[in-house]
Design goal:
The complex is a heterodimer.
Chain A lengths: L2 H26 L4 H29 L5 H14 L3 H32 L7 E4 L5 E4 L9 E4 L9 E5 L1 E5 L1 H4 L5 E4 L3 E2 L4 E2 L4 E5 L7 H12 L5 H32 L3 H15 L2 H20 L2 E3 L2 H8 L1 E7 L5 E12 L5 H11 L6 H9 L9 E7 L3 E6 L2 E6 L1 H6 L12 E7 L2 E12 L3 H10 L3 E5 L4 H11 L3 E3 L4 H14 L4 E6 L5 H6 L2 E5 L5 H6 L2 E3 L5 H36 L5 H20 L7
Helix pairs in contact in A: 1-2, 1-4, 2-3, 2-4, 3-4, 3-8, 4-9, 4-20, 7-8, 7-9, 8-19, 8-20, 9-19, 9-20, 10-19, 11-12, 14-19, 19-20
Chain B lengths: L1 E7 L3 H12 L4 E7 L4 E6 L4 H15 L4 E3 L1
Antiparallel strand pairs in B: 1-3, 1-4, 2-3
Classes of the chains: A alpha+beta, B alpha+beta.
Amino acid sequence: MTKKQKKVLRRIVIAAVLFAALSVAGRLAALPWYAWLALYLIPYLVIGYDVLRKAALGVVHGEVFDENFLMAVATVGAVALGEYGEGVAVMLFYQVGELFQSYAVGKSRRSIAALMDIRPDSANLEDAAGAVQTVDPEDVPVGAVIVVRPGEKIPLDGVVLSGESTLNTSALTGESRPRSARAGDAVISGSVNGDGLLRVQVSKAYGQSTVARILDLVENSSLKKARAENFITKFARYYTPAVCLAALALAVLPPLALGGGWGVWVRRALTFLVISCPCALVISIPLSFFGGIGGASRCGVLIKGGNYLETLAHTGTVVFDKTGTLTRGTFRVSRLRPAPGVDEGDLLRTAARAESYSSHPISKSLREALPAAPDAAGVTDVKEIAGRGVAALVDGRRVLAGSAKLMQEQGVAYTPDEGVGTVVYVARDGAFLGSILIADEIKETAPAAVAALRRQGVRTVMLTGDSRAVAEGVAAQLGLDEVHAELLPADKGERVESLLAARSGGSLAFVGDGINDAPVLTRADVGIAMGALGSDAAIEAADVVLMDDDPAKISLAMRIARKCMRIVYENIVFALGVKALFLLLGAAGIANMWWAVFADVGVMVLAVLNAMRMLAVKK
Amino acid sequence: MRKKFAIEVDCANCAAKIENAVKALPGVNECNVSFMAQKLLLDADDAQFPSVLKAAVKAAKKIEPDFEIEL
């Protein structure tokens, strides 16, 4: 608890004890009314002086209709009607509610601050002589060398000069698998160093470093308000004056019309005022959004504002830019299909050796599939046949490696391979050795990610520059609803435009890897950049940033968003519903002041508790 | 110029009212108050910034006497 909260708590305890004592005394002793009034005024002022002060200041400043004013009028009114105890009790409960609310909000703030505890405290700057001194990360210039000891946070983005270690990026990405870091690797601020000592050359000033950008992004996210939040503040602006006028009418009109009975109607009007207090709504809605954004960032999903949480919850279509989102974007040997009697190793080795002088990505992936670099010594007479493949003499035997066309042209009897991707056919001395399938690898989590989205009722669309066959193969494997293949980079933007124009109902999310797709990210209803750690353009352009490259985080983000919106609507409906009901009951004289206190403080407590559910996000 | 300030404001409704009041001040391009983050973002023309900020703080204190701001 803060100092302020402790002070309020003390006042509540003192006032409650005094109030209880007076209630007991009221049954035992007989005193004139002015003596009781004086006695009851003590706890009343102890508990309510700040409310009265703010209400008075509000009137002076022309800011009449707020909670303080409502409470002041209601309790002063109760006292004026001779209900001293009631006046004190209402004020007491109001303060208990306020204290609870302030405690709950403080707790949420702290727990979110703890989630985002990635801010480095200091950096160990190494000078030219090799001496190390501890400085503020903000004072470290680009190009300087810093030392990161085991267990420390990396304070600034940079490149490892020497040392070897593993890095824990879970605070950034929500992903607990450690990453290795050795000389030459780029490291990201905010990750925690493992066992090794690293010397890092700083590549970005603190303000541009990943940590500072992420903290800035999270902090700014609460400044971008959702429609629901704006609705509530607009609503409160008209609501409070409207209830005050209604209360006034309730106090004055019926007695005038029916004649007499002023006390009864003034009492009802006061009850009405207490019920009407809008705090439950005004506090619980921003709290829900704050919790949603905070809970998401713990899972490595940064959402740039409550408005995007709202759009995300209503997403009906997710458009993927294939490479880097659903697939890794790197080519690998994914299947070997040797001809009968041929050894798999022989097939791969022969192809890799024939292609050992080529710099083509396909050749590279062949070489990478071997445990050791292929022996290039016995390879001579290499001839690249453009668009077909390679012919070479390997250990004096003529090897062909390339497309089906190459086999046909060279008259090799080959077995067609219908695999999705690029197929390399291999022949030696005119005999078919087999085929090697090279494909852009689908991420392990991609099928589950797409399935999860489809279960959530989302249409999934994939855009790619790849050939139709490859695209349709990937789409079939993943179970995507729609594929657009053979697109040039510029076509992707147009395709998203037409999907945007054709969408009905739900909003459209575009998922990209942040490379070259910034304009499309901006254009979509929600732009989601993934694996974006360290990519400034993507962090800038996207509305939602996935810190790691796991596509399953998209459905997680949508689940969080939907839960958040559900809680927001629950609170709006619940609070307004209960209030409307109690306002009617109060006006009819059925609900008394005690019911009114429940309708105010009780509803607020329930709404806040409901909103705090957002903080508990299952990974 | 855009600048963010740490503030202390105790009720969500006051935060919203302060935001609206500051937005209505002359010279303010944008203002955003986050009750949860306890932050005030002010965007005003460079030349007028100090005077606009002063007016904003005054307006805020009028709405919420307990309003505090770290300048």
